[in-house]
Structure formats: structure tokens, C-alpha cells
Amino acid sequence: MNRIILASALALLVVGSVAAREDAAGLLARADAYRGGFDSSVIRVKLTNYDGERVTEEAEYEVAAKGENSLVKFLSARTKGQALLMRGDDMWFFLPAVARPIRITPIQRLLGNVSNGDLARLRYAADYDATVAGMEMVDGTPAVVLDLRAKRKGATYQRVRYIVRKSDARPLRAEYFLTSGKPVKTATFGEPRNMGGRPILARIEIQDAIRATSRTTIEILTIVPRELPDKMFSPVRAGG
């Protein structure tokens, strides 16, 4: 009898654990939809870096994204013609005067506190395993804390503490960590705007974990769902 009770208890624990993982994965997928999670789209983005209240640098980019592939084109006069290409776990940097693309990583700095992967990889569900780590209140709003752990080498960060609103999984805040466990930066997500026919988080502010005066904003200017050709994401053609 005791063995039957023990076996039943273990079965309930296993079922509960699986359900919790599925619930976390579902929350993460819903949160991705707020970050431009279309299957195929073109996004216009502006980055602005601040030291205190002083603007130190700003630039605009066009991000063409399809599935796990993305092409980030630099639009500002000083960097026009440069591009980033991400295909699956691999990333390259293109310079107009250099014939061959340069291998780079998503964690490398793009501008201010924004890394390459912050623009090139919009959907966390593809890169991270999620578990529910708890609940907390954010400005009086009930929120779920998701612990995200990298499951592939193309993930920009090794770990993310991701806080989403309980009612609809809208991202509120994220804390990013290196392999060593050291915190690197924090992101705060603004109110969504209707773009491309769905609510999109049009403003993200990223704060450096060490320098309190250093912050960078990501502004989504436009997002257009569009079917993009696969050849756009070829390392041979992307820099052209």
C-alpha cells in the first residue's frame, strides 16, 4: 500500500514538473509576440545611447527577420553599407570595403549597452529553456518571474531573469547574466503600441549593471510583416 502511495506521489510530481515547464514555455512564447515575433517581417529601429541625460551616440537600423535568420542593415551615414547576418547559431559582420564577412558573436557590443543579438534575435523561445522561478509585484502589477537558461550556442546571454505580467505575459523587465553569473545589464520594457496589427513593445531601455549613468534605448519605429526570400540570408549575398 505504501509503495502504491509513493508511486502515485512521484507520478504527481513528474506531471506537475512537466506542466510547470509547459506553462513557462507558453508564457515565453506569448511574451515573444510583444517583441515583434512575426514569422517574417522588416523592422526599422533607432538606438540612442545616453551618459546621464546627454546623448552620446545614436543610429538607425533595418532588421529583416525570418524564423531563426536575420539581416541587420546599418542606415546611419557613418556606418551605411555595414550589416550583420545571423543564420541559426552563426553570425557575421559585413563591411563594404572587405570582401569576406567577419565571424562575430551575438554578445559583442553593437551600440551603447545594446549587443548584436539584441537586434538580431527577437524571439527568446528559440534560444532559452524557461522555468517559473516565482511571483512578484512590479509597480503594483502581479508578475511571473521566468528563469531562462541558454539551450544553444547562438543565445546572446547564458541566463536571463525575465519578468512578465501575469495577466497576459507582457514583458516588464529583464536582467541579463554572463556565463560567470555576473549581471551585465537590465532592460525595462515600455508600453506597447499597435504595429503590424498587434501590440508591440516599441521602447526598451537598457541600463548598464555597473555604470549607473549609462543607458541605451531601443525604439521600434515601424514593423511590417512581409514574406522575405530565403536568399536574403545567404552569407554570400547579404553584404551586397
Task: Provide structural commentary.
The chain is about 15% helix and about 50% strand. The protein has a 13-stranded antiparallel beta sheet. The protein has a two-stranded antiparallel ribbon with strand order 7-8. The chain is of the alpha+beta class. It has a single domain (about 30-235), classed as outer membrane lipoprotein receptor (LolB), chain A (Clam). The radius of gyration is 20 Å and the shape is globular. It has two helices and 17 strands. It has helices spanning about 1-35, 115-120, and strands at about 40-50, 55-65, 70-75, 85, 90-95, 100-105, 110, 115, 130-140, 140-150, 160-165, 170-175, 185-190, 190-195, 200, 205-210, 215-225. Strand 11 (about 160-165) and strand 12 (about 170-175) form a beta hairpin.
- Structural class of the secondary structure composition? alpha+beta
Strand order of the largest sheet: 6-5-4-3-2-1-17-16-13-12-11-10-9
CATH architecture designation: Clam
Profile the largest sheet: 13 strands, antiparallel
Mean pLDDT, rounded to whole units? 90
